[in-house]
């Protein structure tokens, strides 16, 4: 069975992004989730962490969830052409030296999924160059070679609500069919 770990970042239980999350989860058979706002995850790196001390318990817990999963999924709204700060801080703290890089860890996940909502439409985001910029940061840098393949799905323009919810559900359903190197 494909195990999916979902990292979710939106503060409101009534948001469109929450509906997208629920649609995505409806297609999954097995998953774990880190709901960063609900759990009160701290995005602030401490001086001790920066100095390379042992990873704190909350960081280790996130790393263990990622290690146990075949697929990593990130669900969030685009804010200022990036993820919310709580998720940026998650990357700062969880992708530590020794666990994520130095040495670079390759293929920790068989697949990663970036699923984000945006106020602008995808054609508008591509015309401005912001779509490519977000892909470069999130897919090429933050996920990089740590996943064998990465899907980058932007659900732009909330007026296309029904289409977006169908896309999210179909993406969830597609994951068990993906390659699973642990089977
Ligand atoms: C602080 C903030 C910054 C935002 N920045 C962007 C942005 O840079 N580009 C964009 O397309 N939409 C932006 N939006 C719109 C959100 O992406 C959009 O409201 C969200 O994806 C869907 O609404 P939800 O909050 O109900 O989930 C921003 C919204 C907020 C609250």
Please give a structural write-up:
This protein is of the alpha/beta class. The chain has a single domain, classed as Rossmann fold (3-Layer(aba) Sandwich). It contains 8 helices and 5 strands, in the order E-H-E-H-H-H-E-H-E-H-H-E-H. It has helices at residues 16-26, 36-39, 47-50, 57-67, 85-94, 122-128, 130-143, 161-174, and strands at residues 4-8, 31-35, 71-77, 111-118, 150-156. The protein has a 5-stranded parallel beta sheet, sandwiched between helices. Helix 1 links the parallel strand 1 and strand 2. Helix 1 (16-26) runs parallel beside helix 8 (161-174). The longest helix has 14 residues, at 130-143. It starts with a strand and ends in a 9-residue tail after the last helix. Flavin mononucleotide binds at residues 10, 15-17, 77-81, 117-120, 158. Flavin mononucleotide binds next to helix 1 and strand 4.
Number of distinct helices: 8
Low-confidence stretches: 178-183
First and last CA, distance: 8 Å
Mean pLDDT: 94
Total count of strands = 5
* Assigned CATH class: Alpha Beta
- CATH homologous superfamily descriptor: Flavodoxin domain
